[in-house]
Each structure stands twice: as C-alpha cells, then as structure tokens.
Amino acid sequence: xxxxPDLAAALGYPNPDFDVxxxxxxxxxxxxxxxxxxxxxxxMRSATAxxxxxxxxxxxxxxxxxxxxxxxxEIGTWIEETCDTAQQAIGRMTGALAIAARESRxxxxxxxxxxxxxxxxxxxxxxxxxxxxxSLLFKKWRLNQGKFDSDLASxxxxxxxxxxxxxxxxxxxxxxxxxxxxxxxxxxDSYDKAFPFNAxxxxxxxxxxxxxxxxxxxxxxxxxxxxxxxxxxxDAVIQARSGEPYRSRYDRLLLPWQSAEGQRIITGxxxxxxxxxxxxx
Length: 281
Hints:
281 residues, alpha+beta, 2 domains, elongated, disordered C terminus
C-alpha cells in the first residue's frame, strides 16, 4: 500500500497540486483504501481496477479488526454501499467487478495525450526503441505530406511496423473499413485467433467487442476530420462476446493520409506500454 506522499513520488509528481489517489483510481487502475477512525472507505473503478490492486486491497481489508466499510465503485455511475464487516465488503467488491464485466465497457477506454513534437526530434541513426519506430513513421508521414502511396506497405514491412499497424480507408458512404490489420494485435485471441486475417474488408466499428469497435470508429473519424496526427497513451478493457476480458495498455500513433484519388486513409500503429507498478497499492 502506498501512503499518498510515496504514491505521488512514484508517479513522478513529488509536489502534486491535485488529488493523487483520485487520479490513480480513475486512470491507473488503483484501489484506494482510506482507514479512518469510524470507518474504512474503499474506492475503485470496477471496469478498470487492476487485478493486483484488487488483491492487495482485499488482503489489507482482511487485516482490519472490525468496523464498517464504505464501498464506492463505478459502473457507469458512482455507487456507494456500507458493509458491516470487511469480509462483506470483499464479497461486494467481487460482485461489483462481475457486474462491470457484463456491462457495457464504454467507460473502459481512456486516452492521455503524449507530446507529438518529441517524435520530430529523434536522430534516427538506428531504429530500435518503440519511440524511434514511432518517430520514423511520423517523419515518413511528414516527408510524404500525408500522401498515401504504394511505397508505404513496403516501408512498414522493412522497419518492422506492419504487424503493429492497422490501415483503414473511408468508403464513399463515409464508413471506415479495415484494409489491413496487423497480426501483432492479440486482443481477440481468446475469441478468434483468425480475426487479423478476416478483418480486411470489414467495418472498423464491427469488432468482436462492439463497444471498443464503435469507440475506435469515433476516434479515427475525428483524426480524419481534423487532418492532424494524434500520439497518445491508451488504457482499454477489451472483451469479445464469449472471450476473456483483455486489458490493453498501449502507445498509439494515428496518422491521416490521402490517396492520389482523394480517398481518406488512416494508419493506427501501436506498441504495448509498460504496466505502471504504482497503479497497484
């Protein structure tokens, strides 16, 4: 368990001017346990709480001698319940997590913008790290002035980007359709390992997790409409109809292109981001 000052330092905010625990609970999967004189308050986002954080909170609750526990959790909206014992609270936490797994996961997709200009300043004497690969693709987009040409596919293959890239085109009806789906995307493996091979030609919104598909469709349309690239960190809970929930944290670069015929195209390239230890108390 992190005392608040230690958590702030672990997150890189030694002198924060905001509520660190609220930020960690809402955005990083933490579970907050606040032990007071009269009661203990447990706060979590049911859809995104990290399993290690939940286990740590449950283990800590078992050490409490007694007293009521107020449980605050989010399933679309914030809900509060007061439990007579810690064991009862643990049972309600389990129930809330089960409900969240069955509910719509529209609240389970979060983004945090990263600095796009950092990609312009890498000196690419060699390309090894994730950031260097992002930088290489960003510079390719700038050199091409956003013009999509036949050389791009071989470029993605040559620099090891093709398996972590989706290429999506806009149809005459404004529907976004997969042209390519990298085999490195594994979110639907528990449901259909052939999805990357079957995705081309299907609308981006029609994915095994329809909430995730519709969310991506909105994001991709927004990037195309603005005509500007987007570089961001994403934390998403993805679940196919009959598959296991899959929590994916990744850095993503979205680039808008236009073909010689005027068709709008977008590439989405992503690599898994580190799991931050500070997310679990």
